[in-house]
Each structure stands twice: as structure tokens, then as C-alpha cells.
């Protein structure tokens, strides 16, 4: 099963490639909302997680804490995968 | 059997031509500004603009655009994200008699080029100067430019008082546009508000892209003196808190947004909200039930059609008892079922006010689009004993991904250009959380072709949200038995 570090790298690759403009500097600690992450970005990330890890993040988990940055999102994905 | 809203209004087919030059949608905004000049028209974060302020900004922008060469009748693409400026520019273009063509902000450069050509745009408003064209800055914050498109497009509006072209996609992969006159939009707005009942007392919490939703929403709210809050919140909790801070009374969003709200784990309530409208695609039952349970408020589901506006809306107790219905036809609309089977299920056809004036590219006038006076919507459904319309599926599917419209044909036209693709079929698969997602079936020219390279090809040529979530190689595509056309329904899982 993927670990948090691997998930973080995969999420970072996806978000860099498909969500933000190439000019946006993005690290695992970047504040997503401040960088322009919107509701459509969320849809695309949720779909990426569903197709890559076979799991839909339950809506109650989609909180400001989870979406603070890609590190917190990867940690949530990892935890939810282990809880299954 | 057909059903009629309780009030029938007669609209002669030549209505627009008769009124040519008489009506302009700016009058709706002026009327509101006369009635409640200091009331907030729009709020975006810490920025707030009154109706008078908005009208002043519209006048300034209109003068600038005229100075830069914008003239009555020209078609101008509006390629901007949601903002107060977006609204002001739309009305400014209307004020000078130009035709607004909204362009989804996520469009790729290649799509923009194609839209400029097919919609015969003579101007483009966007966030950056247009390479190779004469561009002038018209707003500092947010930064925004007007470009005159040099190519000599000879757009012919056929003498109509056009205000808006919303492009869609044709059955032959060619892009086509739905053209609406000022009067037609006014009729739509007035017809829709008989059901929505928007007044100066309302504050609308807005979370959909304006490039996809504008007329029977933003224009309607402004015409009736409501305040619209551009809610950019990503997580449910902050949206709920913002709604309460602004004393929001109306929510207008896609099932995806309601799904997030319904599962919010806090105990924040929505005491000020009187109406929550779910639009764009079928509302999943669990979302409808969870939202009602969580907020003690039913979700109103409606039937909105690009060609007609808001045709039906299911509100109040009926939205609880018949959660899967889009409601009864609104006043002035009639709905009938054509070619019904033994269960009464068949093609949904509609007539009523605000019907489009023409298709653009190629130009097909309103009169030629009706079948014995009815517009066949492409939806399949039935009308129950109490007159409620229940949709069962679509024959010609616009895919709705969390509030954004995706036209299968334009994705197929990109896929079919790839040398490894013999043919393709794009459809919306019902998704329990998002409404629908885009998927594709491909008949490959050679078995060893890579689907990953096809995905990459889509990313290069399409707005990212249109790239199919799933690509599947198949040996043949399902076709309708009589015409041999590719079937649009989602594949059976």
C-alpha cells in the first residue's frame, strides 16, 4: 500500500501538472487555497484520488485542515486507506 | 398528454425582430438602481458594489470599449473568471449593443482559437493581452484586456437584437451557438422568477462559474434587486459560516456542492436560507435526503435547458415527496411526452417563453427548430398522475461535471483526430458524489496503442476538466438500431 510520502509525491505531480498554472510554485507545504485552489480544483483532485487509489474521500473529511496543503491531504488519504 | 403551467403567455415567433433596437438588458439594471441605489448588488470577499456603483462601472467600461472600437452587433468573447468585473463587462457590452459570448475560463489556447473562428468573434476580453492582436488594458485590478480580433470575421446577426451566444456542440462535432436576443433573455428571467420569487430581500450565495451560468441566475438576481455573494469557499464549513455572515437566503449550486454541505460534521445551521436550488444534473437521492436531514430544508431540483431557460422547478413539500422530480412546468411553459412507451415514458418536448432565437454556425432560425410548435429537448422522461415531470435519461447528453457543462461531441472530435483512434464515444457516467463524470470508449486502430498517450493528447488539446476520467478500449461502439448513430447513454456497468 502506498505510504504518505509516495501519495504526497503523486498528488504534487498531479496538482502541478493539471490543476495549477505552470507559473505557480508549489511545494507540499504550499497553502492550497491561497495559491488559488477552488471548488473545481477540489473536484479534480478528488477524482484523481478515486481513480489512483480506488477510494472516494468521504465529504466529512474534506475540511480546512485536510486541504491546508498537499502534505495534510496526503496524510488524510494515507490514513483513510489504512482504515479501510 | 401534455401539461401546462397555469399561465400561458403568447410570444409571436417574430417578437425579437419586431422589437429590434427597442429593448436592452441594461434597462433591467437601471430599473433596479432606481429602486434601491445603495443596496449591495454584488459582494466578492471584502469588495462590495452597490447598484449605483455597478451602473457607474458599467458606463465607464462601455465608454472605454467604444473608444477601443467596440460597436453594436459585434460579437465579443468574455474569457474571465467569476468577479464583479465579469458582471460589469457583460452589461457594458450589452449597453453598447455588442453580443456577449462567454468562454469558459479553463479553455485551452487551441479551444480559444476554434471559438474565435466558429463564433466569428470580433473582440475578446481576457486576463492577458492577446498575442498578435491589438490589445488594450481596460481594468487594472483585476487586470483585464480588450483585444480586437484582426481576422475579418463577417458575423451576420440577421437583423436580430442579439445579446448573448452560448455555444454548445453540434451532432457533427462542429461547434454551434445558441443565440438569444435581449427580449428573449428578459422573457426567460421574468418567467423563471415566477417560480424562484427573488426580491430585494434576498441574498444569493453563488458558487457556480459565470461562464456556464449567467442569465436566469445573475441577470435575474440583478433585475430583482437581490444581493449576490460570490462564494469562493472550498470547504463546507467556511461556506456555511459565510452564508450565515451574509444572511444568505438562496443557495444555487450543483449536487456536488450540496453533497459537501450535507456531510459537514459541524452543527452550523442555515436559519436564513429559504430556497436551495440544485441545478445542472440529476440529484442523487442520498444527497437530497442527507441535505434535508442536516438543514431541515428540501433541495429544489429544476430543469434548465440552454435552448429554453428554466422550464420546471420542484420546490416545497413536493421536493420532499417527489425528490426525483424536476417539478411541474413553470407558468407559461407546456411540457409533453412524445413517442411514449407503455409506461408513458418518451421524449420530453417543451414550449414556452424565452425560446432561443437561432442557432449560430450554421444559422438556423427559431421557426425551423420546432416540431409542430414543440422543442424536443433530448431528455427522456414521464409525467406522473399529479403532473410532475420525472427524467429518466438523456438522448443527447450534455455532461455536467460539478456545475460545468461538457459537450461529448467536442471531446470526441479531439479523440478522433488522434491517429490511433478509429472512433470514440464520450458519455457522462452518473457519479454518486459529483453528479456526472466524463468517460470515453475508444475503438483503436491498432490494439497495442497506448491509452496514456491518448490521455496526454486530450490534456494538450482540451480544457483540463474535459479530459475523460476513464478511457476504455472497446471493439465497437453501441449504436441506435434505426439511424446507426452512436448512443449517448452511459455504458451499462
Descriptive account of the structure:
The complex is a heterodimer of chains A (84) and B (493). Helix content of chain A is 54%, strand content 0%. Chain A has helices at residues 4-19, 39-53, 70-83. In chain A, helix 1 (4-19) packs across helix 2 and helix 1 packs across helix 3 (70-83). The mean pLDDT of chain A is 91. In chain B, helix 9 links the parallel strand 13 and strand 14. Chain B contains 13 helices and 28 strands. In chain B, helix 3 packs across helix 4 (84-95), helix 6 (182-196) packs across helix 7 (215-223) and helix 9 crosses helix 10 (285-295). Chain B is globular, with a radius of gyration of 22 Å. By secondary structure, chain B is α/β, with parallel strands linked by helices. The chains are: A mainly alpha (84), B alpha/beta (493). Chain A binds chain B through residues 18-19, 33, 37-44, 46-47, 51, 56, 58-60, 62-64, 67, and chain B through 106, 207, 209, 232-238, 256-257, 259-260, 262-265, 401-402, 404, 432-434, 437, 459, 464-465, 469-470.
The largest sheet of chain B, given as strand count, sense and whether it forms a barrel, is: 9 strands, mixed
The percentage helix of chain B is 25-40%
What is the percentage of strand-forming residues of chain B?
Answer: 25-35%
Look at the helices and sheets of chain B and give the structural class: alpha/beta
For the termini of chain B, the CA-CA separation is 34 Å
Q: Which CATH first-tier class of the largest domain in chain B would you pick?
A: Alpha Beta
Shape of chain B: globular
CATH overall fold name of the largest domain in chain B: Rossmann fold
Helix count of chain A, per DSSP?
3
Number of E-type strands of chain A: 0
Low-confidence stretches of chain A are none
Structural class of chain A: mainly alpha
Poorly predicted runs of chain B are: 6-20
Radius of gyration of chain A: 12 Å
Helix content of chain A: 40-55%
Largest sheet of chain A: none
